[in-house]
Amino acid sequence: MQSTGPLPVTQFDSDYLDPADRFSAWRESVMPLFDVALPDRQSGSPFKSQAEMYQLDDIVAGTVFTQAQRFRQAHISERTDHILIQLHLSGGYRGDMDGDNVHVMPGCVSLIDLSRPLKTTASDTHIANVVLPREHFDTHPDFLNNLHGMVLSPGRGAFLAEYLKALMGRLPHLSQCEAPDVAGVTRDMILSCAYWDAQAQERIGPDLKTVAKQRIQQIVEQHLTAPTLTPDWLCRTAGVSRANLYRLFRNEGGVVRYIQYRRMAAIRRSLEDPREYRSIHELALRYGFDSPPHFSRRFKQLYGMSPRDWRHIAHHQAQLGMSADTPSLSRWARQLGR
Asked: In this structure, which topology does domain 249-336 adopt according to CATH?
């Protein structure tokens, strides 16, 4: 017969510790979940954190408040094979989740696979946490492989957030005999919201990728002459991970090759313009080609003739005043893509 007593609870409150010992005690208490460190720029005030976690059958759930810190994957000797679901009641974090850039804001529900790498930096946060054993997700192995760093969409995220907030309020009042039923409901709520949210994202994934790629292409076009136009700069500006950036431009041979092609296309248009009097060397330098011989070779590889010949033919056709229905170099060039 199960006990009617309250749920087992573990509490941590830094206020009861010597200020010099607070962070080290906190770090030790979260070692099975994360390896934590203080930010490089730390305020002079003593570190502050509080946690209250309840054992709900085979699930652990509760609330945490903690000051800003950096999070890394737990050391292999401490690591647990669990999935962490977090509702950020206030604060948030940003960083890298095994190659994917993630930004979590207040109100977001996110999932973390504690067996996989992460490097994040959190602000002061107040979080509702639920930790589930991995086997709860075994019925959806494909989903399990892709949930690390997942942030639920606003609709399903808000639905699950309301449940988690209600659960946090009930935990101090639940008895051990109620724990299996509440744990089952909690597991089903998380799986339903997260799994079907992932399914919805998968269905609209191609459209989202198209929108993301078009946005990055627009950024590239607006900064073709900028020396800062690099993959790292694009990642920061567009808010995408390096891995996702390369996936988006895989068919173009990678983002570096795409940028080079768009710069070549811009130079080509300039060469066709009879009002453009800058030298080929000046145009090449403007678009980031420091070596004229290298630029000429790449241009000829792309367009089948040297930049000098391209300019000569384009200007010659302009002088002849060819009619709109006459085949022309620029018309042919447009078919190559601009």
From this structure: Arc Repressor Mutant, subunit A (1.10.10)
Give the domain 9-204 fold.
Jelly Rolls (2.60.120)
Residue with tokens 């099975």: 32
Cβ 280 vs Cβ 308: under 8 Å:
yes
Q: Are 78 and 115 in contact (CB under 8 A)?
A: no
Q: What is the pLDDT of residues 199-251, one digit of tens each?
A: 555 544 454 566 678 788 888 999 999 999 999 888 888 777 788 888 888 88
The alpha carbon torsion through 216, 221, 224, 229 (nearest 10 deg) reads -10
Cβ neighbours of 208 (radius 10 Å) = 10
Predicted TM-score (pTM) of the model is 0.60
Q: Give 311-334 pLDDT, tens digit per residue.
A: 888 887 777 664 444 444 444 444
Q: How far is CA 255 from CA 42, 101, 231, 243, in A?
A: 37, 17, 7, 11
Domain with CATH 2.60.120.10 in the chain: 9-204
Alpha helices in 223-328 (DSSP H): 231-238, 242-248, 255-272, 280-286, 292-303, 307-320
| Lookup: tokens for 10 | 């573990």
Angle in degrees, 0-180, between the axes of helices 329-336 and 255-272, rounded to the nearest 10:
170
Contacts of 162 (CB under 8 A, 6+ apart): none
DSSP SS3 for 23: helix
Q: Which two tokens stand for residue 12?
A: 């941590």
**Strand order of the sheet with strand 9-13?**
9-13, 49-56, 59-66, 125-133, 82-90, 109-113
CA distances from 69 to 32, 34, 50, 138 (A): 17, 11, 14, 32
Other Cβ atoms closer than 10 A to 246: 15
173, burial (CB in 10 Å: exposed 0-12, middle 13-18, buried 19+): exposed
Please state, in angstroms and as integers, the Cα–Cα distance from residue 195 to each residue in 75, 151, 189, 265, 332, following that order.
29, 12, 10, 44, 49
